[in-house]
Amino acid sequence: MLSTEFGNNLKKIRKSRGYNQQEVADKMEMTQASISQFEKGKRVPTPSLIRKFANALDADVEEFVGSSDAEFEKQMLMRNVKDLSADSIKKINEFVELIKAGNK
After folding, report:
1. Does residue 49 contact residue 3 with C-beta atoms inside 8 Å?
2. Domain with 77 in it: what CATH number?
3. d(C-alpha 18, C-alpha 60), whole Å
4. 57: which of 20, 28, 64, 78 lies 20 to 30 Å off by Cα?
């Protein structure tokens, strides 16, 4: 699961950089409790937040998510569409087809 993988990697990267949770929280303008929740997999970060963590800890996005940026974006897309209506999913698929046609 993305949140657990991210949390484990965040903790590992944080420790390898010599930071405690409060120091990371200060860099991220968050609370220490928020960092703890991310590390425990109780909160799922957005792609932009993962990039912010990567910048704050001088790391690559791949170190946090264990996959390429494109693969991570696909995972986030799947997470975001799971609760949409059939009509909304149809519209997204139509939009994807437009994008694909424009990339040819």
Report:
1. no
2. 1.10.260.40
3. 17
4. 78
Total domains in the fold of the chain: 1
pLDDT digits (tens, 9 = 90+) for 12-61: 999 999 999 999 999 999 999 999 999 998 998 888 899 999 999 999 88
Contacts of 54 (CB under 8 A, 6+ apart): 60, 61, 63, 64
In terms of residue numbers, what domain contains 46?
1-104
Q: Is the pTM of this model over 0.70?
A: no
For residues 10 and 61, what is the distance between their CA atoms, to the nearest angstrom? 10
Three-class DSSP category at 5: helix
Task: Please state the separation of Cα 51 from the chain's center in Å.
Answer: 8
